[in-house]
Structure formats: C-alpha cells, structure tokens
Amino acid sequence: ALRKMTKANFVSGIGGANSPFFFGNLGGGNQSVPVGQMTKLLVTEILDTSNTFASNKWTPAVAGYYWLFAGVTQDNASGNTLINQVRIYKNGTNIGTFQDNASGNPIEAFTTWNQQLVLLDDNDYIEFYVYCDTADSANGLFMADSRFGGYKLIT
User: Does residue 51 surpass a pLDDT of 90?
Assistant: First the structure.
C-alpha cells in the first residue's frame, strides 16, 4: 500500500547530523614559516561542537567517517613563491599531502587545498602542517584567512 508522503514521514526515513564539526583559521594573524621545514599551523578555533579543540589540534569525541579540509594561502610580496604544501596529520602521522609547485615561474601568492575522507576513533586527533619554498629563501607567509575544518558524515 502506498502511504502519503508527508514531511514527518520523509524526515523519519533519513537521519543523523553532520556533527561533531569544527572550523578555524589563523585568527592570530599571518604565520611566518621557515623555508624547507614542515611547520605546524597555529589554528584558532571558530566553531567546535564537541569542545575538543586544544593546542592547535582537534579530537572528534565521536567515532565515524569525517570529511576534513584545509585551505592555506601563502602570499609573499616579493613574488618568489615556489612551493605551497598543506598536510593533514592524524595522530602525528601525515595522511595526505596536497602541493602547488610554481618552480618554473615563481609567483606572489596561491592557495592550496587539501581534503581527506578519514575514519576516526573518538580519541584520534587532527593537526595541520605546511611546507614552503621560495626563490629568495625568505620565510613563507601564510595568511590569516587560511581555513581548516572537518565534520562527521551521516552514515
């Protein structure tokens, strides 16, 4: 027998929430990063539904699959940016690297995005790192509006 589709019937057929989730940026301002060194970013929490963001790392507090993302903008006024790399770390280990390489033609700025689908336990932790190279060996300058986040997928 067919049932009349009502909002209540429809909503009861799906469920869950994309939480916990977190979002942050380099709210403390731009971050200078030494050339050729993997450097942990100093992320400032903006949203954190599980209240588990501390010491520049996030712990989900609920096991499940998560979509994690990081978008970092390196902007060197000298126009000598060669490499911009962002890594997502799980429990101190790199789980994915995305890189932009302008070695043939140094530029002033670009944004590199990293996105990962990751299975997390409730006590795993996530951190964000960057690596850069410049043609003049000057430090990389990662902009305050670089952003980071993640959310639990509905399964």
Answer: yes
